[in-house]
Structures are given as C-alpha cells and as structure tokens.
Design goal:
CATH topology of the largest domain: Rossmann fold
Structural class: alpha/beta
CATH superfamily of the largest domain: Alpha/Beta hydrolase fold, catalytic domain
Oligomer: single chain
Strand content: 5-15%
Order of helices and strands: EHHEEEHEHEHEHHHHHEHEH
Largest sheet: 9 strands, mixed
CATH class of the largest domain: Alpha Beta
Distance between the termini: 18 Å
Number of strands: 9
Number of domains: 2
Length: 332
C-alpha cells in the first residue's frame, strides 16, 4: 500500500486541545469514561510459555449482535493496561461497529501483576505470541486484528517479525509507536519534557516495586535511586530481560529493522508534533515504504491523542476502521 501523508487536510485538532502537548494530555485532564457495562466483559487467561507459571490476563467484550467481524486485540503502551483511557475509548468505538474486542494486559501490567513474576519490555513480542497461539474462542475464528498503542505497538511488531503464531492476523495497526527506542529516550530527557519524564519514571518504578516482578534487594535499591529512565533501564529493564545495559536494550529492541521481516499488512499512524516520539524514523520510512505498509503521518495529533474537530472518538479510530473495512473487502 502507498505512502500516505494527510497532514492538516484530514486531521484538525479540536479546540482547546491545540498543539502536541495538549493533545497528549487531554485524557490526563479528562479521563475517558470507563463504563463498558453495555458490553459485559469475560476474563481470559493466557499462559506465557517458559514464563515460570506467569499468565497474561485479558478482558473480552462481545457486540450486542453477532456480525461475523474479526476480533480486535488491543495492546497498551508503557505503564498502561486494560484500564487506560485510550483502551476504553477504542474498545467502545469498535464494539459499536459490531467488532468483538479484547483488552490485553502485558506481563506484569494492570491485572496481570497478580499472575506474573516477570514484566514486559519493548521486545516482549512473546507476550502477544502467547495470546495468538492460545486463542481458542469463537470470535478468533473470524480473524484477528492487532492494534498496539505506543510501546505496545513495538511489542506487537516484535511478535509479527520474530514469532510464528497459530493465528495469523488479518492486519495490524500501531498508534504513536516508537521505532527507535534510543531516540525516544533522548527526546524524553530534553528539558522541555522534564514533567513527562518524571511522570513516566515514577509510574515505571511503581510498576516494578509495587508489582509482582522478581527483583533483588540490590535491584530494588537501584530502581528507587534511578534519576532517569536510562538509569531505570540500566538497573532493571536490561538485566531483567537479558540485555547487557540500556543501550544494548534500546538497540536490540528498536523496531526500525523489523518492518522488512513482516508480511502482515500494517497501518502505522504517527504525529509529527508527538512530544515524546520523534518523527524522524517515520520520515525515513516514508521515503522507502514497504509494500505491505500504509503510513499515515500527520502534522498534529500529539502522543496517542488525535482528538479531532469531527467525531466524538479520537481520529485514529476512524482511520483504523476505514483501513480495516478496506482490508476486509480485499480479503473477501
């Protein structure tokens, strides 16, 4: 599929959420409604192979009437979980269109904290692969669509590039996903991002110290003393996941070299004014887009924002839905 750059013509921010920061912070100031009672959820459990007994928890929601549409699996971002605002909003948006939706909690995230001793990182494609390999529900027999938000998109891309799964997705989508982890850390450590950096670091520490992750007293002390995400990744993420240090982790788990290894049709959405994730890797990709990739790179939208002038749901949901409808027509 071709390179796409809709720019201002297709996405117009909603007042007063103007600029990348306000787009990013809208759900922080005004969280999305958590009410999904119209579509009661069913708790699912997926063992992690070779995970020492760890299991991932997910919440499955079915539309009111059977439509024959594929199952949409949502993968949250860093320090997120099934309860993140964007997860609720996308779930509601797709259920209204007749899609069954599963909100997945990665290893050690949200409800999965209680069932895991390990945690996830950007390269934890095995988390998504465990779900795709163990899916045995009626909804999955109609096909599967993956949607990864922020770091969840990186995890999803690692799954598609590195793991053979019993269920092959119809297509996959990333929203505001880091392709170069090292570049993201450098961006977050800029003076203008100091508040974002402190907020993320505090949540990362809480996920490790307050969760069930196996961590030695020495690591715990180093995590608590970490003054930056780099120091945190050196103290915990890298050694916990078998990397030499944080730079080794950033290099080996970046997604920049994965796309050529993926045959699944991909839709990548990103905003140039994302305050966390530089657009450079997307610009480079746009000059040589693989044939299975559709790239939507807008001027505005922030980080997992895209709160537009038209429509009650974030703009990326309408783009994903249109893309998916085209894919489904193509496969019929």
């Amino acid at each position: 599929m071709p390179w796409v750059d809709p720019g201002h013509a297709d996405f117009t921010p909603r007042f007063p959420w103007l600029g990348g920061d306000l787009q990013t912070l809208r759900y922080y100031f005004f969280p999305c409604s958590e009410d999904l009672s119209a579509w009661p959820g069913e708790r699912l459990r997926f063992p992690v192979p070779d995970g020492g007994g760890d299991a991932l928890l997910a919440m499955l929601h079915r539309p009111h009437h059977a439509t024959g549409r594929p199952l949409v699996i949502l993968v949250h971002g860093l320090t997120g979980c099934e309860g993140s605002s964007y997860m609720f909003e996308t779930t509601r948006s797709f259920l209204r269109l007749g899609y069954p939706v599963m909100r997945l909690n990665l290893r050690g995230a949200g409800p999965s904290r209680a069932t895991c001793r390990g945690s996830y990182c950007g390269g934890s494609g095995d988390n998504v692969a465990a779900v795709l390999s163990a899916l045995d529900i009626e909804e999955a027999r109609r096909g599967v669509v993956l949607i990864g938000f922020s770091l969840g998109g990186t995890v999803m891309l690692h799954c598609l590039a590195r793991h053979a799964c019993a269920v092959a997705p119809i297509c996959a989508v990333t929203v505001s996903t880091p392709l170069d982890l090292g570049a993201v850390i450098r961006s977050l450590m800029r003076p203008r991002n100091v508040l974002y950096h402190r907020w993320l670091l505090a949540r990362m520490k809480d996920a490790v110290i307050g969760g069930a992750s196996e961590i030695s007293p020495r690591q715990q002390k180093a995590v608590l003393a970490a003054r930056s995400i780099r120091e945190f990744d050196n103290a915990f993420t890298a050694p916990h996941h078998g990397f030499a240090d944080c730079d080794d982790y950033y290099t080996r788990c970046s997604a920049t070299g994965l796309l050529d290894r993926i045959d699944t049709p991909l839709l990548l959405l990103h905003a140039r004014n994302d305050p966390w994730i530089p657009a450079g890797p997307y610009e480079d990709l746009g000059r040589d887009t693989p044939p299975n990739v559709t790239l939507v790179l807008t001027d505005n939208g922030g980080h997992v924002g895209f709160h537009g002038r038209r429509g009650a749901t974030p703009w990326y949901n309408t783009v994903i839905q249109a893309y998916l409808e085209r894919r489904l027509r193509h496969t019929d």
